[in-house]
Amino acid sequence: MKTTLKKTMAALSAAAVVAASAAVMAVPTSAAGVSLTMGSKTLTLAELKAANYQVTLPIGVTDSINSVGFGVTLGEGLTYVDLEASVKKATCLAATNDAGNFVFAPFAYATVPLKAVSGQIAAITVEVSKDAKAGDTFTLSIDGKDSDGVETSYKNGETGDSGVPGGGAGTITIAEDPTEPTTEATTAAPTATPVAATTTAAKVATPTKPAKSTSSPKTGDALPVAGVAVAVAVIGGVALVAKKRK
Questions:
Q1: pTM of the model
Q2: What does the alpha-carbon distance between residue 143 and residue 141 come to, in Å, rounded to a whole number?
Q3: pLDDT tens digits for range 203-217
Q4: Burial group, residue 79, by CB count within 10 angstroms (0-12, 13-18, 19+)
Q5: Does residue 61 carry a pLDDT above 50?
Q6: Burial of 6 (0-12, 13-18, 19+ CB in 10 A)
Q7: pLDDT tens-digit readout, 13-36
Q8: Contact at 8 Å (CB) between 165 and 35?
Q9: β-strand pairing of 91-92 with 95-96
Q10: DSSP letters along 2-37, please?
């Protein structure tokens, strides 16, 4: 299986180089160099379960290229699912080892006239162990080597630059699920009912009604109803006696 894998990777790498450099005769080595990059992602355990434990990360290059061969090593807890080119009309065929923790993929992009590409060139999808829990971190590394550790090369067909690409790494981090706010935390404490100061003040300011006097009314005082009746009777009696005397 190892021999077959090696032959497959060699054939894919050769095809990528031919497709990307058909119009290039001389290939000087680039002084600046190009590095491979692997993206990272953080998600909650709930999000991981909703994605059926599969996570996709971008693979990129730090400068323009037309072809490059790269190998991705998956850390413990990760298994390979898929790898595809992110550039239209580009070729990126992946091959894995028996354990499924190493993926080799030559990338090739050829147009007429020849144009180089930069940034994201591919995307890899891996499956995270179902034993994953909040706080776990899984690592993926990428470099310009095949399964036997043999270095590959990148090539820019426009400028003729080429060389061995540098490597990088990415991570998948499982975060804590957000906690639901408690009812006690959101319920406001009851406020005390303010005392109606104005009502109390009004009651204090209102004068009390004087007690009813039992003494005889003074001159100018209003007579009670019963007193008026007696006075009328007395006046009438005096008038009647005076009439008889006449």
A1: 0.63
A2: 7
A3: 444 555 555 444 444
A4: middle
A5: yes
A6: middle
A7: 444 443 333 333 223 333 458 999
A8: yes
A9: unpaired
A10: HHHHHHHHHHHHHHHHHHHSTT----PBPSS--BEE
